[in-house]
Amino acid sequence: MTWTPDVDPARTESRAHPLAAPSGPPRWLVAIDVGGSGSRLVATTVPSGARPDAAHPPVAPGDAPHRTELTGRSVAIGPDGSDVADVVRDLCASFVAATTGSHDAPPVVAAAAVGATGLATLVPDPATVHTALRTTLAADRTAVAADALTAHLGALGGRAGAVVAVGTGAIALGTDLRRVWRRTDGWGHLLGDLGSASWIGAHGLRAALAAHDGRATGGSRPLLAAAQARFGPVPTWPVQLYTRPDRAQVLGSFTPDVAAAAAAGDPASVQILTEAGRHLAETLAAALVPGLPPLAAATGGVLAAGPSLTGALARRFAALRPDAELVPSAGTPLDGALHLARLLTEGTATGGAAASTAPAAPLVAHAPWLSLGDEPPAPAPSTTTPITGDPT
Amino acid sequence: MTWTPDVDPARTESRAHPLAAPSGPPRWLVAIDVGGSGSRLVATTVPSGARPDAAHPPVAPGDAPHRTELTGRSVAIGPDGSDVADVVRDLCASFVAATTGSHDAPPVVAAAAVGATGLATLVPDPATVHTALRTTLAADRTAVAADALTAHLGALGGRAGAVVAVGTGAIALGTDLRRVWRRTDGWGHLLGDLGSASWIGAHGLRAALAAHDGRATGGSRPLLAAAQARFGPVPTWPVQLYTRPDRAQVLGSFTPDVAAAAAAGDPASVQILTEAGRHLAETLAAALVPGLPPLAAATGGVLAAGPSLTGALARRFAALRPDAELVPSAGTPLDGALHLARLLTEGTATGGAAASTAPAAPLVAHAPWLSLGDEPPAPAPSTTTPITGDPT
Predict the structure, then answer these.
(1) Does domain A12-157+331-372 have CATH number 3.30.420.40?
(2) Which residues of chain B have pLDDT under 50?
(3) Best mutation site among B187, B228, B231 for testing chain A: the one with the most A CBs within 10 Å?
(4) For the structural domain made of B197-326, what CATH number should be given?
(5) Strand, coil or helix: what is B123?
(6) Which spans does this entry mark as compositional bias, Low complexity (chains A, B) (predicted)?
(7) How far is CA B223 from the centre of its chain?
(8) Taking a contact as any Cβ pair under 8 Å apart, which residues of chain A between 106 and 125 contact chain B?
(9) Separation of alpha carbons A56 and A37, rounded Å
(10) Intervals of CATH 3.30.420.40 along chain B
(11) Which residues of chain B are within 8 Å of residue A192 when distances are taken between CB atoms?
(12) How far is B117 from chain A (nearest CA, A)?
């Protein structure tokens, strides 16, 4: 299951029978990933092999799953924090409209899960996102997670360990989904996000300006040429950047140019990607705290910036944690959100009809990483690793 | 003449006779410095020794100069750029109100000059600032300069050379006020301003977060403690910072803590200040282009951050330009703005009654650094060093 980034925003894809199953309407799992550079929804009907619960009998075994994918806008950060709930509401409404068109009745949603950027810091109350899911989808069960958690679930497929997610920002989470929750970085483009697209782009633009200014060190003429091609004359750059609300995305938009210059051998660009990889390794290693198995992964589109970055990441991580295994990412944050939605149907801690036969441990809410519907966001249990205190 | 930062916002200080001169009302020079952390106005009556012009006879020789100082708010950057003109209008109105109260008639302003932050990049049209000066002060002659120029005039007292001004941001200008105009850095906290207060503060907060996250390198526990004392619990920092319009100032507000930690021996803080000094030296050296005498200075409150910064600046500059002299700054940007106002009364290129006996060369407008009233902002003469092209 891979994400198709250039999917038609309203495409509904039916892999087998386009009609509803004879035994009743199909039941959907809905997963949403809300990021700094866009949002995505994927919905799939519950496959025959999924464990049903008492309230929702399985669809007929002969039915192949339907699958729907939609794209939406990115979040905006304003004086009240981010508008994740609005983005989720719009995507869900589009899903309902598209699916109702196919089936002549609103879709029946068994579970819906959202992974959202900035959730750990900039959304004061995940309840607004739960409300958006319930009012648009009438979902029985809902989960709202930080994108660091859905990235973790996607990359390690539900296994315990540490995952660094590298997009416009960069954040790592070390967790077993139960007792250990250790976050590192994810502090945004001014305070951290070291090695992320915004970090790489900002350093690339600084190298371009160093060449423009004629500084003694750090300049890159290839990056200056690339930045002028992308942003126009140098004196216009500040007003283009500082008057926009999405500065981190603007900075990150230069990262492909840094990757291209590095691929062409520009020393300054290679150096920037190498430092980015080292930063990401330190972020990842710091999240792999005692109590977790020595398992780690990195995920995110920025890893495609080239071997300068990924090589430095692997070397530095091996130096910091020679005992640990750095495995390839098994899937995307959107895959992780779908995994989370599936876990909701296998038994939760929300008092719903948990399947007694489910071998998986029930999901446990843990603020600010995971909140579950039908209950207020739970405070962090006292036995878990505090995220606000100092590391030991 | 030094700036007193904690002056009463409406204090009018009369150094000698509080009444108008018997030969007529006193004539004022008004100077304004608009910065990222506040704005200041100083006005002084034209001293007896100043060269008068035909339209404005000198005050009686026996009159000692009056002096008035006011403080105002800092600029805000919005979708339309900075609001320098509004800040200037408010300060001038306060000056007129205070001075009218003392003299029972509006002050007669011979010349007014403004140095403003971001003028080179974020104010599309300095004419709005000229209009603010004329409508509030009825000034005969006005000048609107980038703060880099007033810093230069203040630091070198009108001599040719290069000056780096270090406040919330950092910018250097190499100029002889006639043919050579070379700017380096000043690109704002996301693209540059290397070594400035916002740069130091951001790096200090990153060191604090590195300690908080338990990263392998770069952490500082003293800075973590200082940042928690200043900003509260770590998880609240992003929402405090990213929802504010004055992010650079918030970052810069941590610089005194970095300076204090460095003074107490914190290695990470010493390293940050040392790198800041090196960056400033490279910015300054890059502005000292051929055609200028080998004379340079650094100015701004951030230089008080300690010997780690100033020592690194001096050493790195000496290594880059062993032929050049790095002199102590002779005055502040506000002094430079007053110098500029005085130059306006000594003869300008605006078609006014220039004193034929003035030994000083007439002021020449040069966008975006200096624009003069009574004429549209002049395009850069083709014989000067372009600021938008590549350095050679």
Answers:
(1) yes
(2) 1-22, 49-50, 52-62, 348-359, 375-392
(3) B187
(4) 3.30.420.40
(5) coil
(6) 381-392
(7) 29
(8) 118, 120-122, 124
(9) 36
(10) 12-157+331-372, 197-326
(11) 206, 209
(12) 13
Given an 8 Å threshold on Cβ–Cβ distance, is B78 in contact with A238? no
Q: Which two tokens stand for residue A294?
A: 């020595």
Find the helix or strand (DSSP H, E) in which B171 lies. strand B170-175
Of A187, A235, A286, Cβ closest to residue B238: A187
Cβ of B322 under 8 Å from any chain A Cβ? no
Task: State which residue of chain A sits closest to B204, comparing Cα positions.
Answer: A191
pLDDT digits (tens, 9 = 90+) for B316-361: 999 999 999 999 999 999 999 999 999 998 854 333 333 333 345 6
The whole-angstrom distance between B98's CA and the closest CA on chain A is 35
Tokens of A341: 């939605």
Pair of tokens at residue A85: 């709930």
Minimal CA–CA distance to A143: which of A127, A156, A155?
Answer: A127
Structure tokens at B36: 């990222």
CA distance A388 to chain B (A): 6
**In terms of pTM, does the model score above 0.90?**
no
How does DSSP assign B66-110, residue by residue?
EEEEEEEPPP-EETTEE-HHHHHHHHHHHHHHHHHHHHSSPPEEE
What number is the ipTM of this complex? Answer: 0.79
The dihedral region occupied by B337, where left means phi > 0, alpha psi between -120 and 50, and beta the remainder, is: alpha
Edge-to-edge strand ranges of the sheet holding B66-72: B12-14, B66-72, B38-45, B27-35, B108-116, B141-146, B370-372
